[in-house]
Amino acid sequence: MSRSFRRSNPITIVLAGILCIGFFVFFFSGGDAPVIGKNRGAGETASNPLSPASLPFRKSKANAPRVAPPVVHYYMNNLTTSRTPIENEETVLILTPMARFYQEYWDNLAKLSYPHSLISLGFIIPKTKEGNAAYAALQAQIAKTQSGPKPKRFAAVTILRQDTENPLSSQAETERHKMENQKVRRAAMSKARNSLLFTTMGPTTSWVLWMDADIIETPPSLIQDLAAYDVPIIVPNCFQRHYDKEKKTSIIREYDLNNWIDSPTAKEMGAKMGKDEILLEGYGEMPTYRSLMAKMYDPSADPTTKIKLDGVGGTTLLVKAEVHRDGAMFPPFAFYNLIETEGFAKMAKRLNWESFGLPNYLVFHYDE
């Protein structure tokens, strides 16, 4: 058979076409890798302690054969963070450093209207007397919720116990907010936040919602409300409900002063500081003249108003998981003279991620 005949043989052409099609199907199909964020069954669990942290793990019986650790491929391009997170089944990781347990915090968490099957919870609790009490109370509520109706159960819950030394003798609000305690306190908070984040964020996490343990009231639609802005970092305005004994009336007052727009004065102060010194907000001894989002609240204004921020607080903070994956964490050291959540906003900005705030969208902090 001549060479020219073999090249023009229809059978050869058909076989070559099949091989080409097979190659393209193999190359673009993604193999047997999971499609992140899709078709997550409520009963899906990890089969081994080394399985991804984003799945709940159930221990096998003592005499059961040990299951081999799985090998799983994740294609991160399949992970979305969109304005419609429920429709796209985007998973949310809610992280809470907890020194005290407030029942109102848990009740508010349980009322969130975002599908609980798409929410994982993470806590870090110090090994102190107060921390042990918080741990016991939290465990009781978790057991009650996770054994209740399936729609109310969370996808996974992780609790870390913190062995590091607590820099403060008390968690009372007056002690926590003393100016001389801020650097050591917030450095310890940064370490706790980072430990919690690095331990719990899995490859299927789309959003990370930081919520302090003393946030006791938010709209049930909090997650989808904040995600709808489709920005890397966003914070609502944190207030307190307070009873004014002098006026004998209930009022609301601003609480979180770490959401701010920078000022020339603050920049000049930072330029004159040593590399290990930090700027603090809300103290008369250190007037920065920054524009505080807490002071911008207007009950008659548009609740959807969004502003750009240079510093953020962590009382309630929604972050696209890719921001953390890109390297933005909470510096426990002076980072451009900022620390913890404010340092996080600065670090994120250095990585080209912007922060935003909602001055007229309120969440409420426990009033001590």
**Helix-strand makeup class:** alpha/beta
Q: Give the mean pLDDT.
A: 87
Number of strands: 12
Assign a percent range to the helix content: 25-40%
| Domain count | 1
Strand content: 15-25%
At CATH level 3, the topology is Spore Coat Polysaccharide Biosynthesis Protein SpsA, Chain A
Number of alpha- plus pi-helical segments:
10
The rounded Rg comes to 25 Å
CATH architecture label = Alpha-Beta Complex
Major pleated sheet:
10 strands, mixed
Specify the CATH homologous superfamily. Spore Coat Polysaccharide Biosynthesis Protein SpsA, Chain A
**CATH class membership:** Alpha Beta
Which overall shape is indicated by the principal axes computed on the Cα atoms?
globular
Instruction: Determine the N-to-C terminus distance.
Output: 94 Å
> What is the chain-wise order of helices and strands?
HHEHEHEHHEEHEEEHEEEHHE
Poorly predicted runs are: 30-35, 37-42
Organism: Ophiobolus disseminans
Protein name: Alpha-1,6 mannosyltransferase subunit
Transmembrane segments: 12-30
GO molecular function, one term: alpha-1,6-mannosyltransferase activity
